[in-house]
């Protein structure tokens, strides 16, 4: 089993593109605005995403539980919650840890399956808009902009490969837009 990655204190937030992305993600996930994320934060997201009508929520709960466990392992202090700074540092460490690549892809696939109500291995615009709103997105225009960004091949549907590519870009690319964070909810 990989050893915990010890956290390093950062004196400045948002000094690079990933910090900015991950700070926005924290803000979107901190729905009670208490300045911390806890395991229960993901339960709120699971409930919201469950409204989109795809696969069973238990698979999504398991996926987010694994993700939370890895975040806490990468944070390394044994606590039960993460401040914004701790979350950003843990997510950056997780993104650099090549052993977590499979986890990110599994999580992306699980969320894709939740959104995929037609079971055609692609998301139509209607499916994506419904999913985007369930994930906390505000309106059709924002959903359609995210859809266009994630439809890498421009065929009018988001394939599983498109969806996974968006998630990998969000997590691992030095500079990335926020729309591909849809796995974590609309940011």
From TrEMBL:
Coiled coil: none
Pfam families: EF-hand_5
Xref: PROSITE patterns: EF_HAND_1 (PS00018), EF_HAND_2 (PS50222)
Domain (EF-hand): residue spans on this chain: 17-52, 138-173
Name of the protein described by the UniProt record: EF-hand domain-containing protein
């Amino acid at each position: 089993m990989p050893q915990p990655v010890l956290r390093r204190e950062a004196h400045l937030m948002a000094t690079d593109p990933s910090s900015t992305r991950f700070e926005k993600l924290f803000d979107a996930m901190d729905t009670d605005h208490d300045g911390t994320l806890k395991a229960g934060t993901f339960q709120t997201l699971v409930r919201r995403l469950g409204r989109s009508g795809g696969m069973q929520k238990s698979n999504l709960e398991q996926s987010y539980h694994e993700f939370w466990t890895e975040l806490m392992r990468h944070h390394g202090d044994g606590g039960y919650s993460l401040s914004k700074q701790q979350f950003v540092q843990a997510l950056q460490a997780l993104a650099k840890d090549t052993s977590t690549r499979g986890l990110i892809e599994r999580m992306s696939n699980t969320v894709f399956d939740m959104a995929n109500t037609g079971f055609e291995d692609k998301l139509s615009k209607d499916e994506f808009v419904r999913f985007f709103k369930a994930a906390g997105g505000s309106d059709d225009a924002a959903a359609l902009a995210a859809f266009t960004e994630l439809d890498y091949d421009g065929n009018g549907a988001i394939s599983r490969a498109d969806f996974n590519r968006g998630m990998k870009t969000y997590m691992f690319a030095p500079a990335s837009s926020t729309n591909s964070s849809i796995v974590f909810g609309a940011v």
